[in-house]
Fold:
Amino acid sequence: MRIIWITLLAVLMSGCGYNTFQTTDEQIKASWAEVLNQYQRRADLIPNLVNTVKGFAAQEQAVLLGVTEARARVGSIQATPELINDEQAFAKFQAAQGELTSALSRLMVIVENYPQLKSDANFRDLQAQLEGTENRITVARNRYIKAVQEYNVTVREFPTNLTAMLFGYKLKPSFTVENEKQISSPPAVDFAAPKAAVPSK
Structure:
């Protein structure tokens, strides 16, 4: 009799979305881990990038400091797995990453004023790595968005919404439209040789 009840319960659970919750939740965790990996890759590039720029453009202290401070703010936020279940913490983390993206964009703009820096092999390699990382961040974020979307639809739909209420599954935060506009414009990478030097301000 007990086996029959267990079997019946399993059938009911599979039909009310319980298994879907398990699958989509794991997809979200895996996708988020990849987002964090790519963000960390970017953060790891920054010290060498800043030092290289400093060697050619030490007078650009405000921009260099802005990048360093933005990286520090990102590092001060503990990106635990639980962060994706806390909308406020998630928003704070993404705001910090957005500030870092903006700071890097400003850094890439001033690089245009330093032809010698642009032609430096080490800097060009760092630029290429940064561009590749920004592209990977975009791909990872898109995967996360899709995983969250599937999960959130399951939370809202009937009858799976009943399972969500029963087991405490709640909507998870995702990236906003503003986030996507920001991430869709990564720091520009221009390897073209300059026609003429532009004096720094």
Summary: The domain at 36-183 is CATH 1.20.1440.20 (de novo design (two linked rop proteins)). The mean pLDDT is 83. The chain has eight helices and no strands.
